[in-house]
Amino acid sequence: MSEEYKTETDLTCERYENAVNHPQEVGPPENDFREVNTQTIQNITCEPEASDDVTDEYTELENVPDADDIQENSPVDPVATVEDMHGTDLINGYDGDDSE
After folding, report:
1. 53 domain residue, yes or no
2. What DSSP state is assigned to residue 21?
3. pTM value surpassing 0.70
4. Would you give the DSSP letter of residue 7?
């Protein structure tokens, strides 16, 4: 192998011989290939576990205090002024003026 190659053909032949002489265990496993024109079907190996906190019964929402009980005449949005419309219309840029 330390000898100098005379031609490109000698190098190609040695590469081919080295590629052919690899042991079988270096290659892919036998059962790693699918047969031609076969279909693979996936199965669920186990049933999913049911959640412990799922209930079908109706539960009351927690009681939220009225804003006027906390502070009399408080605005809906403390950042917005009282004259502005609140909610989606304000986000979309509608200010209540229908004169357009």
Report:
1. no
2. T
3. no
4. S
Does some domain include residue 40? no
The 3-state secondary structure of 34-89, one letter per residue: CCCCCCCCCCCCCCCCCCCCCCCCCCCCCCCCCHHHHCCCCCCCCCCCCCCCCCHH
Per DSSP, 93 falls in state: T
- Identify which of 1, 33, 34, 35 has the alpha carbon closest to the alpha carbon of residue 18: 1
Is the residue at 81 inside a domain?
yes
Q: What values do phi and psi take at 40, rounded to 5?
A: -95, 130
Give the number of domains in the chain: 1
Q: Where in the sequence is the domain holding 87, given as residue range(s)?
A: 65-95
Asked if residues 95 and 87 have their Cβ atoms less than 8 Å apart, the reply is: no
How does DSSP classify residue 6?
Answer: S
pLDDT in tens, 2-33: 566 578 888 888 888 887 766 666 666 677 77
